[in-house]
Write a structure and sequence with these properties.
Helices cover about 75% and strands about 0% of the residues. The protein is built from eight helices and no strands. The chain has a domain of about 140 residues. α2 runs parallel beside α6, α3 packs across α4 and α4 runs parallel beside α6.
């Protein structure tokens, strides 16, 4: 009597699967913990929030739009601007790691390259030189050779300068409206009514008639081109 042969089971490398799971957990938990810091230090979020703050101060609305609305708009625009960088990270690091071609540490190193190149594109040479000197590093042959501890703070300083520059230019027309309204109310003797009570609706009306949000979003997107 012949015994039936059982079909061969597919081979399974338990050691490789078990080795990748801890790295995945460590990577995901670390990413979740550092996500707020990454958003505020390695993305366009800094420039966007600074400009939105200046706009609200220039309009004189204080709490409108609210912080939640501005944060939501900043997040969506950041996602739009960073999508090419995220796709590069997906191709260079995430997909090879999921296929078991590279280790977790190699995935982190590869995944850091696209954000580094993005930040170097907008970081000023003056700011890079400042942190390179403060870290006691010699001048590298290429900017791409700079470590992240130099690139990230230099990028943040550059973004703060860009945000304050855009905010100052944005503030000027609204400041002109305040000055005109204050001079008119003073000349006709309206001392009982503060000028800001009259200028604030005029500034909001001017901003709406000029389609200000569209112009502001377009200018911010062009500043990252």
């Amino acid at each position: 009597m012949k015994t039936a042969k059982l079909p061969a089971l597919p081979s399974f490398d338990a050691h490789a699967a078990g080795a990748s799971v801890p790295w995945t957990i460590v990577f995901v938990l670390t990413l979740i913990t550092l996500l707020p810091a990454i958003l505020l230090s390695m993305t366009p979020m800094v420039r966007l929030l600074v400009v939105f703050h200046f706009l609200r101060q220039a309009l004189g609305t204080q709490t409108a739009p609210s912080n939640q609305i501005l944060m939501g708009l900043g997040l969506t625009m950041t996602w739009f601007l960073m999508q090419p960088v995220l796709l590069d990270v997906q191709k260079q690091a995430v997909e090879p790691f999921e296929q078991g071609q590279i280790s977790g540490w190699q995935a982190i190193e590869r995944g850091a390259t696209p954000p580094r190149l993005y930040m170097l594109h907008y970081a000023r040479e003056k700011d890079l030189a400042l942190f390179t000197s403060a870290a006691g590093l010699s001048r590298p042959a290429r900017p791409e050779d700079l470590p992240m501890r130099v690139v990230v703070p230099a990028y943040m300083l550059s973004e703060l300068k860009a945000g304050f520059t855009i905010g100052a230019v944005l503030f000027l027309p609204f400041l002109l409206v305040d000055m005109v309204v204050a001079s008119i109310t003073t000349s006709i003797g309206m001392f009982q009514l503060p000028p800001v009570v009259i200028s604030t609706p005029l500034k909001i009306l001017l901003f709406v008639m000029a389609d200000g949000w569209n112009l502001l979003a377009g200018s911010l997107l062009k500043s990252f081109s």
